[in-house]
Write the structure tokens for this entry.
Amino acid sequence: MNFPILSSLILLPTIGAFFLFFTKSNNENNITVKYVALFTSLVNFFLSIYLWILFDQSTSEFQFVEDRIWIKGLINYKVGVDGISILFILLTTFITPLCIISINHSIKKRLSEFLIAVLIMESFMIGVFCSLDLVVFYLFFEAGLIPMFLIIGIWGGARRVYSAFKFFLFTLLGSVLMLVAIISIYWINGTTDVVKLYEIGIDEKFQNLLWLAFFSSFAVKTPMWPVHTWLPDAHVEAPTAGSVLLAAILLKMAGYGFIRFSLGLFPIASEIFTPLIYFLSVVAIIFTSLIALMQEDMKKLIAYSSVAHMGFVTLGIFTIQQQGLEGSIIQMISHGLVSAALFLCVGVVYDRMHSRLINTYGGVVTIIPKYSILFMIFTLAALGLPGTSGFIGEFLILMGAFKDNFLVAVIASLGVIIGAAYMLWLYKRVIFGKLVNLQLKEMVDLNKSELFILTCLAIPTLFFGFYPEPLINTIEVSIEDLIKSYNLKLIAN
């Protein structure tokens, strides 16, 4: 195929953002601005669907590869997709237009600039999942900080500046070490081409330090305990659309990095540091779940639940088992859908009552029944109820963990119980109980756009819960090849 479909996916949102620069966002043409952004993101979504249709699931080879000289003798612009990366591209292009639709009255100033930031961020995130060169990956990975920093810092809440700088500094400091590691890899192997590095391997004596350098960046971005504290602050202050992008996609870049680089490039080091990952993952699952139980702010509760869910992801990745790795990817896709929906649900009631505190609500089930039903679906998906996508991911992860380390799997299983406790406790306090706050009687149920967005998220959440085959078929061969290559490199050394 000669058509550069991956470059088109990366560049199209940026082109849309370029057009928005010439459109002023005053009250008269806000709709025009929004339609331009929505049209751009929808075209990108349908292009990604076309990519998925063309994708050959029977091979683990990278497909639709584009390789062009960027800086002669140093860096090539090289992109491509396999079964692992294509799902994250689909998630990105699916979530972005829903974010744009969700912006009704929540963003009242500088709408065009906000949409520019969203579209440019989409370009960067797709670039991360396509990159087959370490330098290109790093540039896209770090560039994503800028639009999210602006989204939180300009359109966030009262403590937006503090939260934006905390987010930026945490993630940037972690990534500096990764940059040093990439330079070192070029010095050692003479290339930053990921495919070539897979073939030639990296010398065993360098792997531990290089693995730790990449880990420093991915651990912060995931985020893993104890470098997770930026996430609740960022979520609380970010506008709803910002929280959706942060939870649904941005966190997944680190999980993808663990699979693509930590396992792919440093198998010996990954084997050595697996106990460390198990410890940090289990602590994240249990500790942050207990903290979530104590929260009174709905956004903070969901943010802490994200840390716990990503703990399951890192646990599954480092089991190096077929079920564990498949479960981790499905869990990331599911969390992308469910966390996006939960933050949108919080945004719905916040737009009406201007409060995220749980005790503000209660007894709204008869007032806003449509909202209550959809909120219930996403709550049950978040706690991993069978029949939802959340169950498939967690079940496969725990299966993989039981195969590799029984004790770790048992402790992690407790996190499922605690997760059910805080999510059901949240739902009970918000939806059921006695109607104490009489102002709630004035609340209106979901409007057409809100109903459409949440339904669009509910459908895949339930569909993949009952029929995960399309996801498993897409990733299966790539995961098998990754595990095979991982084990062969361990044996060789």
Notes: The two ends are 38 Å apart (CA to CA). The first strand starts at residue 63 and ends at 71. The first helix runs from residue 5 to 20. Residues 172 and 447 are 39 Å apart (CA to CA).
